[in-house]
Amino acid sequence: MPPYTDTTQSTKYRKEQQKLLRPRVINGKQTFVKFLPQDDLKAIHPVYLTDPTDFKPRRQLRGDMLEWGIVELDLSIQLSLVETIERRMVQDSARAKCMYHRELQPQVQFINALMERKAKIAAARDPQREMCDFELTVRLRNTESASTTTCLMWRRIKVAGATKLGVFQDKILAPALGWTRNYHGYLFVDDSDGAQYGAPGASHIDLMFLKDNGHTYLDDDEFSLADILPGPNPDKPAFHFIYDLGDFWFHDIYVEMILPASESNGKVALLAGGGACPREDGQGCRNWIKYIQSLDLKKHAEIAQSMNYSDDPDVRRLGARWRFDPHAFDLTAARKRISDALASPASVPSGPKKAVVGDPFAFARRGVPSDRVPKGTHRTIIPTGDFNPFPKDSMLRGAFNQTEVVRDRRDKRALALCACCGKPITEPRMCGACKKVYYCDRE
């Protein structure tokens, strides 16, 4: 769950709330979740009034298991966006006279119990699975209607079962697909029960939508692919990858094959793929289909200037003559993106790429606490190529910068991947030159 920065006032408020929280008695049974005394429990989803140990997740209307398996009361009711937001606001506040502190929300209390149960299930997995390689197919879901789905982008990847989910997303999955590292938030979702995994301490701007996507998540640095992926089933997705919680790019992950340990080498390999990655900030799958169906010169230029295309060699070479082909896929370029990511330190989710106008170091020089960065990291200005959100005639265009917190130290040993082959290594050898990456052997 994203951290809440405590101030003296907020800490005092949380402690006062903690004293007021009490379980309620509903139909002779005491609730697991504690509420404030002034709450109107009619505003709360009935599932939060039950015992989480008895909770059975349910699938959404389209058949997906999302948001911890908690669905709307009546799946036949189609609410407008405004009505959905209003209902969420009522449920989030529980009609309390004052808002809950983040970790004390009834929803979060309930889901924390589900997380404990999920962690125990993952811990019971066969540890020998981590010695196996997994062949995965990742497909971008593009939904035009309730009954029609088309896959516009897909990738097939071989990866070691011991790879932690966070490292897999940062150094393998995002580069393979074509998304920008450490730019937007993300979630992994287990299709068996809706359990969610995400980056610990993340502060991506789109995490403001987390309350609409399950409220909280497990630490993906604590779980490997072998911990959570089931057996092979090329016809049913085992996992979902949601990138950018605002635009909601939805990917299905299928387990095609699990190689036995005797045939596994642990090395990362992008085996095949098809289709171009959408542009960053492209407003999601449904809008993306409509967008590419009516490509014109203006839209080609917008894609060329997006975060994940502005540095593309073809874009730089052709300039205004560059044209976006939604069906094109450069396997060599995608493999290079993975190779470059493996040979660099892991991203810092608490300091993602973000746009600023003016001097990005002004707050740091003043010693403003909100701009402090974790120990062993520093804030830097990153090249943006032609990416700039302001029109060419805007006064703000020249003052635009983009910053990111980058790591000075090497990655944690428990999360180490070989900078050459991507193999998880229990006894990593540190690079003697940069002292930031690891290798599995001297060669």
Automatic annotation (TrEMBL):
InterPro entries: MM3350-like_sf, Plasmid_pRiA4b_Orf3-like. Pfam families: PRiA4_ORF3. Residues 152-332 form the Plasmid pRiA4b Orf3-like domain. Signal peptide: none annotated. This is LIM domain and RING finger. It comes from Mycena venus.
